[in-house]
């Protein structure tokens, strides 16, 4: 934000305050009675009447002073009532799937109707007056507030903290108003400016059209309308109220808008990398010298990075998240975050005899967001060619087919005419690689290419990259999963705190050692799932799933994404309805819905979800997060809650001073441990962990896995560990179940060898 | 696709029917009926029960409400909008002569509104935080805040009375076309644009700014596509679809906006007749107008939804498959 912009805001604040004083104190300051005629109609301004007289000879100044509060009051009342109705309706619609349709159908009808229609109807029925205007303004505002709130509430409904609240059996009003509502503040505020404007416009227009307050009430909008015919003779009778309305709304709007404007991101600028003279390094494809990224104020993201890469070589860039890996990758291509500048040199040399002119290609991290949803595959590839000056249509078409074939995709017309959403994740990734290798660039930069891919797709990706290397392309691969890449990589560059150094390439894929199962043979199962079928819509996602879990046992559940792992977890904790089948705990069947389960049953099965950021309520403290299950499920009193919360944090290796913190002040690893502590607060028998390590850094991952292992030994917890990470599974699990296409694959040998039974 | 279209059209028709029923019921609940109204307005003092009964029989008011609604609805379908309580003339006869002027005003406004708001929004959003963006955003925000009738009065005071450039009132003599004196349209159209364009401009700008930070735009840039090309070919198509809903909102907003603007400029359109009918509680006229306004709103939003669907391949497949399956 520039200084002048802040100046505008401050001026708006001052004017708004002055207007507020005028509106409130005005009626007491008016020199004449606002409805008394004191002279000739449309008399010009004089000492006695500084703004002149109006159409029937009343003092304009007095009427202006007396006429503001009705407008402000009407608008305020309409907004408050509309806000209360809209927020409640939006929360109900967003969080309660069955009531959604009942709320939204009338809303959809109201949205398409012009406000004037509503006002015409109401004014005909009620007659002119404040109620007609109020009802019209309400009916115009409520549907929009409902829609905005519903969208955010739906988004929050999938968050871990809402699911946790539902699973521990919080009543609906608590989930809606205590858990979700505080997090909607930003959304409601952002919409507020627009709502104020629209409501003032409707209230004043109604008055102006003669449907609002009846004359001779002093009212700014009515004054404009009454004195219009005298505009040429005595303009102040019209201009004074008109300007006041304008000032009031503009100021309020500018102030309300600050919230929204401050949140818009800025778009970074891109400089093109310079082509180095061929003599720079005879065989080198990429030569980086003292590359740095720093802001004017001295903040440094990257400092003094040097790297040489020959044609066909591959360097892996590793390091903890936030260390500057992606910054390095993008800085190589000339892009820096807004407000930052790049120092040092990046020189790219094309091998002798190369045909094209392209220096660098880039493959973004997430294939789903990396492709433009509005452009066909063929168009996206042709755009890259066009950007590099290829105008020959036949040549371009051939180059596209060549690039697609190189990554193992069909190059036929049918495929080229597809849109990104019609491809699988693996195909999308390969299209992105194809567009990065078009025109044979000397260097291709890939940002986390294996994230979110299952084992099979990762293997396919490795094959593609190997072919590229053989063709002489140098690769820079940013990755957090080095083991998956080891056989491809020539060198490893480790980035830590903005500095980079070359490190040893690990020899073989470092797989953690297998551990011995702790389960003793012959123990009766604690949790038994029989013939469970569940899903969304008409297609069952899970079909006929049966398994057993013993106390103290850790059972891993693996499978590709989208096979129903999370749905199964949600079925166990009572957040997703079963179509058929049964979940039996300790010999008693569990009710399918958490709200129908007894307190003992709700306590027994607890849940930890994937994303630690969404697992805890952003607007609540850790203490609140731990206190709710203690009170609701264990009936602890106040003193006990304080003591037990501190003990719970100690059990997950955290200090009690974190109790007063909110999620924004905690790291990902800390958040996940708090989430585990919240689950432990209930004293569960079964802990369901849904991908709890997949968004954590490797070293943090290790501590969380250790914690899980220790807890289940100490507390004899049964753990269902859902993951797609075979490394993590090998470290904690006694047995592994695989889910594919909604069905469990037949169980193979237990990991620990034949000695252990289930 | 056809089934989806039929379903949407059915939904639209249902909304109009619903509005018609609600309006009919509401007006039915009003104290007094047309017969009482007519007799008391004729100024002959308190009417006798015999007079009332006779008039009720003559107007068909003694029949049950459902039957009368059926009559009114079937008349509506055949183009008969009903009869004014006050003047006893057919509603269509009252409204028709003025439709032309209102439609002219609306068409000119919409024809300018779409390109202007689209252009401004895309321009400002393509470089969020830049000087152009801040200028456009601030001006649009300020203009949005001003109620249209205030803008109209101020424009008349400055442009028409102060500088003497354009007519202060937009009179159109009966029997002539507005386009014979196009200058009378300038200020009304300007006011309508000022009231309606800001919201779509802001939505398009916000959407465009968001699209400019997406992974696919970054990837296109990093793979060498120029800024101009990124904006026009890669980002804009994704922003335009999101713009259709607010644009439809602006077009529907014309209904109220035109009522205000016609009053400000004394423009001989539908608004004056309608406002008179509302003030006099002449329900047959209001009822007919309400149904027409509802149909207009429903159809505009339906058209916008279909256009947005056509522009977003992902959503299109989802909707069409979801229905045909």
UniProtKB/TrEMBL annotation, chain A:
<feature type="domain" description="ABC transporter">
    <location>
        <begin position="527"/>
        <end position="755"/>
    </location>
</feature>
<keyword id="KW-0067">ATP-binding</keyword>
<feature type="domain" description="ABC transporter">
    <location>
        <begin position="286"/>
        <end position="522"/>
    </location>
</feature>
<dbReference type="InterPro" id="IPR027417">
    <property type="entry name" value="P-loop_NTPase"/>
</dbReference>
<dbReference type="InterPro" id="IPR050319">
    <property type="entry name" value="ABC_transp_ATP-bind"/>
</dbReference>
<dbReference type="InterPro" id="IPR003593">
    <property type="entry name" value="AAA+_ATPase"/>
</dbReference>
<feature type="transmembrane region" description="Helical">
    <location>
        <begin position="192"/>
        <end position="213"/>
    </location>
</feature>
<keyword id="KW-0547">Nucleotide-binding</keyword>
<keyword id="KW-0472">Membrane</keyword>
<feature type="transmembrane region" description="Helical">
    <location>
        <begin position="107"/>
        <end position="126"/>
    </location>
</feature>
<feature type="transmembrane region" description="Helical">
    <location>
        <begin position="233"/>
        <end position="256"/>
    </location>
</feature>
<dbReference type="InterPro" id="IPR000515">
    <property type="entry name" value="MetI-like"/>
</dbReference>
<dbReference type="InterPro" id="IPR003439">
    <property type="entry name" value="ABC_transporter-like_ATP-bd"/>
</dbReference>
<dbReference type="GO" id="GO:0055085">
    <property type="term" value="P:transmembrane transport"/>
</dbReference>
<protein>
    <submittedName>
        <fullName>ATP-binding cassette domain-containing protein</fullName>
    </submittedName>
</protein>
<feature type="domain" description="ABC transmembrane type-1">
    <location>
        <begin position="68"/>
        <end position="256"/>
    </location>
</feature>
<dbReference type="Pfam" id="PF00005">
    <property type="entry name" value="ABC_tran"/>
</dbReference>
<feature type="transmembrane region" description="Helical">
    <location>
        <begin position="72"/>
        <end position="95"/>
    </location>
</feature>
<keyword id="KW-0812">Transmembrane</keyword>
<keyword id="KW-1133">Transmembrane helix</keyword>
<dbReference type="GO" id="GO:0016887">
    <property type="term" value="F:ATP hydrolysis activity"/>
</dbReference>
<comment type="similarity">
    <text>Belongs to the ABC transporter superfamily.</text>
</comment>
TrEMBL record, chain B:
<protein>
    <submittedName>
        <fullName>ABC transporter permease</fullName>
    </submittedName>
</protein>
<dbReference type="Pfam" id="PF00528">
    <property type="entry name" value="BPD_transp_1"/>
</dbReference>
<dbReference type="GO" id="GO:0055085">
    <property type="term" value="P:transmembrane transport"/>
</dbReference>
<keyword id="KW-0813">Transport</keyword>
<feature type="transmembrane region" description="Helical">
    <location>
        <begin position="12"/>
        <end position="30"/>
    </location>
</feature>
<keyword id="KW-1133">Transmembrane helix</keyword>
<feature type="transmembrane region" description="Helical">
    <location>
        <begin position="288"/>
        <end position="311"/>
    </location>
</feature>
<dbReference type="Pfam" id="PF19300">
    <property type="entry name" value="BPD_transp_1_N"/>
</dbReference>
<keyword id="KW-0812">Transmembrane</keyword>
<keyword id="KW-1003">Cell membrane</keyword>
<feature type="transmembrane region" description="Helical">
    <location>
        <begin position="103"/>
        <end position="124"/>
    </location>
</feature>
<feature type="domain" description="ABC transmembrane type-1">
    <location>
        <begin position="99"/>
        <end position="304"/>
    </location>
</feature>
<dbReference type="InterPro" id="IPR000515">
    <property type="entry name" value="MetI-like"/>
</dbReference>
<dbReference type="GO" id="GO:0005886">
    <property type="term" value="C:plasma membrane"/>
</dbReference>
<keyword id="KW-0472">Membrane</keyword>
<feature type="transmembrane region" description="Helical">
    <location>
        <begin position="178"/>
        <end position="198"/>
    </location>
</feature>
<feature type="transmembrane region" description="Helical">
    <location>
        <begin position="136"/>
        <end position="166"/>
    </location>
</feature>
<feature type="transmembrane region" description="Helical">
    <location>
        <begin position="247"/>
        <end position="268"/>
    </location>
</feature>
<dbReference type="InterPro" id="IPR035906">
    <property type="entry name" value="MetI-like_sf"/>
</dbReference>
<dbReference type="InterPro" id="IPR045621">
    <property type="entry name" value="BPD_transp_1_N"/>
</dbReference>
<comment type="similarity">
    <text>Belongs to the binding-protein-dependent transport system permease family.</text>
</comment>
């Amino acid at each position: 934000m520039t200084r002048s912009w802040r100046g505008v805001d401050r001026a708006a604040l001052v004017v708004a305050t002055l207007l507020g004083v005028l509106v409130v104190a005005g009626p007491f300051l008016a020199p004449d009675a606002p409805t008394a005629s004191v002279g000739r109609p449309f008399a010009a301004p004089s000492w006695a009447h500084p703004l002149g007289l109006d159409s029937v000879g009343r003092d304009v100044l007095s009427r202006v002073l007396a006429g503001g509060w009705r407008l402000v009051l009407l608008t305020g009342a309409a907004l408050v009532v509309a806000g209360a109705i809209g927020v409640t309706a939006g929360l109900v619609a967003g969080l309660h799937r069955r009531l959604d349709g009942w709320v939204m159908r009338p809303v959809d009808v109201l949205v398409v109707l012009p406000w004037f229609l509503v006002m015409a109807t109401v004014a005909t029925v009620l007659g002119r007056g404040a109620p007609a205007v109020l009802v019209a303004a309400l009916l115009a505002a409520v549907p929009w507030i409902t829609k905005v709130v519903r969208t955010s509430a739906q988004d929050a409904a999938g968050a871990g903290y809402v699911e946790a609240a539902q699973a521990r059996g919080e009543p609906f009003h608590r989930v809606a108003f205590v858990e979700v509502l505080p997090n909607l503040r930003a959304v409601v505020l952002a919409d507020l400016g627009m709502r104020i404007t629209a409501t003032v416009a409707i209230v004043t227009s109604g008055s102006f059209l003669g449907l609002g307050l009846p004359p001779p009430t002093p009212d700014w909008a009515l004054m404009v309308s009454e004195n219009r015919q005298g505009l040429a003779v005595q303009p102040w009778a019209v201009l004074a109220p008109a300007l006041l309305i304008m000032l009031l709304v503009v100021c309020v709007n500018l102030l309300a808008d600050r919230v929204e404007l401050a949140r818009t991101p800025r778009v970074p600028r891109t400089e093109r990398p310079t082509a180095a003279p061929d003599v720079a390094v005879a065989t080198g494809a990429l030569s980086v010298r003292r590359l740095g990224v720093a802001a004017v104020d001295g903040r440094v993201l990257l400092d003094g990075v040097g790297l040489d890469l020959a044609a066909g070589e591959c360097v892996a860039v590793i390091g903890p998240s936030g260390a500057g890996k992606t910054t390095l990758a993008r800085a190589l291509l000339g892009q820096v975050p807004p407000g930052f500048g790049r120092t040092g040199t990046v020189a790219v040399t094309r091998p002798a005899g190369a045909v094209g002119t392209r220096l660098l290609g880039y493959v973004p991290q997430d294939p789903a967001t990396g492709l433009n949803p509005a452009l066909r595959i063929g168009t996206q590839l042709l755009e890259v060619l066009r950007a590099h000056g290829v105008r020959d249509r036949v040549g371009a078409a051939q180059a596209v087919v060549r690039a697609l074939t190189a990554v193992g995709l069909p190059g036929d017309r049918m495929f080229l005419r597809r849109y990104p959403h019609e491809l699988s994740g693996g195909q999308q990734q390969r299209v992105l690689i194809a567009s990065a290798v078009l025109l044979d660039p000397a260097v291709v930069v890939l940002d986390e290419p294996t994230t979110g891919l299952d084992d099979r797709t990762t293997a396919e990706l490795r094959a593609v990259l190997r072919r590229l290397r053989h063709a002489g392309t140098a690769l820079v691969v940013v990755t957090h999963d080095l083991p998956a890449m080891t056989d491809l990589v020539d060198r490893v560059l480790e980035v830590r705190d903005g500095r980079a150094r070359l490190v040893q390439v690990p020899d073989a894929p470092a797989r953690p050692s297998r551990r011995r199962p702790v389960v003793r043979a012959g123990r009766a199962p604690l949790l038994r799932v029989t013939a469970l079928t569940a899903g969304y819509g008409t297609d069952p996602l899970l079909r006929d799933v049966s398994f057993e879990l013993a106390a103290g046992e850790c059972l891993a559940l693996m499978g590709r994404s989208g096979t129903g792992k999370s749905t199964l977890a949600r079925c166990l904790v009572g957040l997703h309805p079963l179509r058929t089948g049964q979940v039996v705990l300790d010999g008693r069947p569990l009710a399918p819905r958490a709200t129908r389960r007894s307190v003992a049953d709700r306590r027994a099965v607890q849940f930890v979800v994937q994303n630690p950021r969404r697992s805890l309520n952003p607007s609540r403290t850790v203490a609140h997060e731990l206190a709710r299950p203690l009170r609701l499920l264990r009936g602890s009193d106040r003193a006990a809650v304080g003591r037990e919360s501190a003990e719970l944090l100690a059990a997950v290796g955290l200090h009690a001073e974190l109790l007063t913190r909110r999620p924004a002040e905690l790291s990902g690893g800390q958040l996940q441990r708090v989430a585990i502590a919240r689950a432990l607060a209930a004293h569960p028998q079964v802990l369901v962990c849904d991908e709890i390590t997949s968004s954590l850094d490797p070293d943090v991952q290790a501590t969380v896995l250790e914690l899980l292992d220790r807890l289940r030994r100490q507390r004899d917890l049964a753990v269902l560990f859902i993951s797609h990470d075979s490394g993590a599974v090998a470290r904690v699990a006694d047995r592994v179940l695989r889910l594919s296409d909604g069905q469990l694959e037949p169980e193979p040998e237990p990991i620990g060898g034949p000695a252990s039974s289930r | 696709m056809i089934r989806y279209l039929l379903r949407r059209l059915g939904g639209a028709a249902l909304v109009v029917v619903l509005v018609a029923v609600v309006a009919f019921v509401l007006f039915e609940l009003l104290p007094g009926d047309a017969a009482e109204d007519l007799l008391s307005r004729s100024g002959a003092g308190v009417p006798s029960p015999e007079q009332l009964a006779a008039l009720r029989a003559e107007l068909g008011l003694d029949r049950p409400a459902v039957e009368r609604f059926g009559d009114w609805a079937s008349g509506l379908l055949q183009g008969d909008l009903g009869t004014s309580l006050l003047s006893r003339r057919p509603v269509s006869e009252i409204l028709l002569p003025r439709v032309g002027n209102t439609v002219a005003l609306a068409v000119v406004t919409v024809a300018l509104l779409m390109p202007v708001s689209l252009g401004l929004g895309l321009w400002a959003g393509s470089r969020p935080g830049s000087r152009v963006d801040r200028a456009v955003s601030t001006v649009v925000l300020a203009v949005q805040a001003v109620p249209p009738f205030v803008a109209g009065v101020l424009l008349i005071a400055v442009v028409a009375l102060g500088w003497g450039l354009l007519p202060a009132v937009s009179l159109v003599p009966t029997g002539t076309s507005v386009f014979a004196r196009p200058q009378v349209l300038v200020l009304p159209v300007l006011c309508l644009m000022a009231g309606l364009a800001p919201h779509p401009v802001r939505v398009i700008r916000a959407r465009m700014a968001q699209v400019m930070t997406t992974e696919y735009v970054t990837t296109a840039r990093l793979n060498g596509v120029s800024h101009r090309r990124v904006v026009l070919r890669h980002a804009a198509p994704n922003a335009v679809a999101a713009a259709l809903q607010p644009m439809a909102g602006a077009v529907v907003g014309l209904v109220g906006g035109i009522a205000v603007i016609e009053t400000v400029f004394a423009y001989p359109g539908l608004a004056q007749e309608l406002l008179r009918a509302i003030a006099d509680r002449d329900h047959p006229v209001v009822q007919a107008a309400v149904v027409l306004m509802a149909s207009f709103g429903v159809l505009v939003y339906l058209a916008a939804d279909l256009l947005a669907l056509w522009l977003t391949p992902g959503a299109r497949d989802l909707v069409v498959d979801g229905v045909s399956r």
